[in-house]
Amino acid sequence: MSTTITTAGWNHTEIEISHSVLQKAYQRETETLMAQVRSQINNMTDMQQLWQVHDLLSAKRYDLDGKYDNREPMLVFTFAQLLKEGWISLEELNGLDSAKLAKISSLSKM
In this structure, what is the dihedral angle of CA atoms 41, 47, 49, 54, given to the nearest 10 degrees? Predict the structure, then answer.
């Protein structure tokens, strides 16, 4: 496997790690959301609760569409947010450059 550095400073191995981690985090978050929605629907007793589910889904769709930015210049920020929210662990990012890991860790604490 090549370790050629791309224009944003991410080598091919780091890109593969990044895509894998992003897919796992997205799956975790969407499975959690589906479980939350199922619970709300199963306990629904009036139309107001239905609209609350609608509002939740609309907000989460907007949030998810923006959160999982896989453009190389944004990956450090994407991972920092996912780490802060608990969707990934720093250990899952093993294989990334130590400077990137340090930035991700620092940003996740802000």
Answer: 80
Whole-model pTM: value is 0.87
Q: What is the pLDDT of residues 55-85, one digit of tens each?
A: 999 999 999 999 999 999 999 999 999 999 9
- Please, which contacts does 17-20 make with residues 24 or more away whose CB atoms are closer than 8 Å? 17/93, 17/94, 17/95, 17/96, 18/70, 18/75, 18/79, 18/96, 19/70
